[in-house]
């Protein structure tokens, strides 16, 4: 399955030190096979899922385009910040603003 990264996710991954960056990239590659620690989110984030890699979280969602499913990775951050920051921006991200 195709995985697309937002600019924020790409920039976040690339800004990490070499070891976590390598692990995050590996986790994102596994996501294309729907592998990894994946869980659906709740409440206002119920259209999204999260991928956990150590102390990091990547928020993503599925989208169907031309009858093909793809994964859109919208946001990545350390665990302590990801839900607080992402939930503030969820409406803009999901509406395409």
Description:
This protein has three helices and five strands, in the order βααββββα. It has a five-stranded mixed beta sheet with strand order 1-5-4-3-2. The chain is of the alpha+beta class.
List keywords for this structure.
5-stranded mixed sheet; 97 residues; alpha+beta
The percent range for helix content is 40-55%
Order of helices and strands: EHHEEEEH
**What is the makeup of the main sheet?**
5 strands, mixed
Question: What are the low-pLDDT stretches, counting only 5+ consecutive residues below 50?
Answer: none
Strand content: 35-45%
Strand line-up across the major sheet = 1-5-4-3-2
Number of E strands: 5
Compute the CA-based radius of gyration: 13 Å
What secondary-structure arrangement, pairings included, does this model have?
Layout (H helix, E strand, L loop, with lengths): L1 E4 L1 H8 L3 H14 L5 E4 L8 E5 L2 E10 L2 E11 H17 L2
Parallel strand pairs: 1-5
Antiparallel strand pairs: 2-3, 3-4, 4-5
Provide a short characterization of the protein structure.
The chain has 97 residues and is of the alpha+beta class.
């Amino acid at each position: 399955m195709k995985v697309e990264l937002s600019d924020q996710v790409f920039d976040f991954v690339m800004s990490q030190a070499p070891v976590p960056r390598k692990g995050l990239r590996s986790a994102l590659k596994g996501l294309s096979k729907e592998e990894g620690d994946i869980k659906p989110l709740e409440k206002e984030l119920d259209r999204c899922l999260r991928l956990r890699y150590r102390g990091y979280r990547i928020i993503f969602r599925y989208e169907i385009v031309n009858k093909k499913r793809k994964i859109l990775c919208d946001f990545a951050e350390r665990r302590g910040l990801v839900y607080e920051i992402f939930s503030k921006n969820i409406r803009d991200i999901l509406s395409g603003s």
